[in-house]
Amino acid sequence: MHEAVAHIRNVTVREPRIAVVLGSGLGAFADELVDPIAIPYSEIPGWPVSTAAGHSGRLVFGKLHNLDVAVMAGRAHLYEGYTPAQVTMGVRVFHHLGVRSVIFTNAAGGINLSYRQGALVLISDHINLQGSHPLIGPNDDSAGPRFPDMSEAYSRAYRALAHQVAHQLNIQLEEGVYAALTGPSYETPAEIHYLRTIGADLVGMSTVPEVIVANYLGMHVLAISCVTNMAAGILPQKIDHEEVLETGRQVRDTLIRFLKALLPKL
Ligand code: HPA
Fold this sequence. Notes:
Layout: H1 2-11, E1 18-22, E2 34-40, E3 58-64, E4 67-73, H2 84-87, H3 89-97, E5 101-110, E6 120-128, H4 156-168, E7 173-180, H5 189-197, E8 202-204, H6 208-216, E9 220-230, H7 241-262
Parallel strand pairs: 1-4, 1-5, 5-9, 6-7, 7-8
Antiparallel strand pairs: 2-3, 3-4, 5-8, 6-9
């Protein structure tokens, strides 16, 4: 990780306090930054290069109305074979660079029957069903606690601000619990029934390891899911990655408008 930080520091001395992580089909926000400095992941030592379609794979530093922002366009997933440590490396690097607030975005399946394809949902809490945890192993007590509290993993204050901004912009914003599985297969209808029963509103294959590490490091977290499809068994149709990407593209402009208004308020 230190080599990655050193490489980035060689390219830019910018010190954003806030970072955005963009999920499948949601990479367009990076193009909104003014004075951008883009670093392809492949040039950063040790950085996991995302192989999933729809993940463009670059770190972008830029400005949004005078606010310094870092953007991770594309992320690594457990289903690609990366370890929890690799999947969360970006968050650790951000923390080293001085980032203290992270907004995560992702594509998710909608489990809550009141959601519609294309809905934006603020994550209020999560259920980790990935069978792994990014903090397993010896703990560096100077970095964070051995047993981190997760009772408010998604900042209540940030969620309140996000609802205010959404209301002002006339954007419908739901709130729900995100269940993380590893994938790469989509779920079975029986699994979705189970997930709904245990209290999940959304299902996806990312975000949770990163949110755990961000909390561990004392960072403030906001996370937004785009419901790219209703989860398996809800509609009489198959789930297809192309559809997931296409829905991401359709909500792109709304998400960009929302993030641009929200970031300066955090
Ligand atoms: N399940 C899991 N992950 C997803 C889905 C889904 O239905 N849609 C987008 N990411």
